[in-house]
Amino acid sequence: MMRSILFTALLAFSASASAQGFDYNYFSVGYERLNLDDGFIDVDGDGFGLSGSFELNESFFIFGSYGMGEFEEQGITVDVDSLSAGIGWHAPLSEQIDFVAGLSYEYVDVGASGLGSQDENGYGLGVGLRYQASEAIELNAGINYVDLGDGDDTGFGVGLLYGVTENVDIGLTADWGDDSSAYGINGRFYFGG
């Protein structure tokens, strides 16, 4: 169960693609609706996150994110905080498609009201594609693997970004793990590039 909560939190707030000609310089804020269903419990929660990316050169970028989520069931509140930081690499497959890969350090803290907290750290690996469907619309999809010491998990995520202005996008995301899912909306703000 704890692995699924951690994995949902990591997927919900992991750095993802950005539009505007595959710009890797951005700051993003988002809201997620989270669900955990591992056969024993089925709970919903809310999550909020911040993420960013900064391009180092034509192929490499660094990224980071912070997320917080909350589940409540029968008077018990479970809080999940996650931090992620890593380096990514991207390469064009065509004028409209970019391949993206990343390696990250992951930290998650889970606390339950009256029961204390537990933290884990580990690493994450991810690969994905970004597709510029039109001047204003980008579609993206990826697979993420996370190892947090007490177990590992693999998940799949998809997203859509719509360019509102030259420097602002709004987006929708969906992520699925073995026992979890997350659906969200975010705002992305581009800088410098």
Describe the fold and architecture.
With 193 residues, the chain is mainly beta. It is 6% helix and 69% strand. The protein has one helix spanning 2-13; strands spanning 26-37, 42-55, 60-73, 76-92, 97-112, 116-132, 137-147, 152-163, 168-176, 180-190. The chain has a 10-stranded antiparallel barrel.
Side-by-side strand order of the widest sheet = 1-2-3-4-5-6-7-8-9-10
Contiguous runs where pLDDT drops below 50 for at least 5 residues = 1-20
For this structure, the CATH topology is Lipocalin
Our count of domains comes out at 1
**CATH level-two architecture:** Beta Barrel
What is the helix/strand order? HEEEEEEEEEE
Q: How many distinct beta strands?
A: 10
Strand content bin: over 45%
Radius of gyration, Cα only, in angstroms? 16 Å
Major sheet: size, sense and barrel closure? 10 strands, antiparallel, barrel
Q: How much helix, percentage-wise, in residues?
A: under 10%
**Assembly annotation:** single chain
Q: According to CATH, what is the class?
A: Mainly Beta
Please tally the helical runs, counting DSSP H or I stretches of 4 or more residues.
1
Mean pLDDT over the full residue set: 86
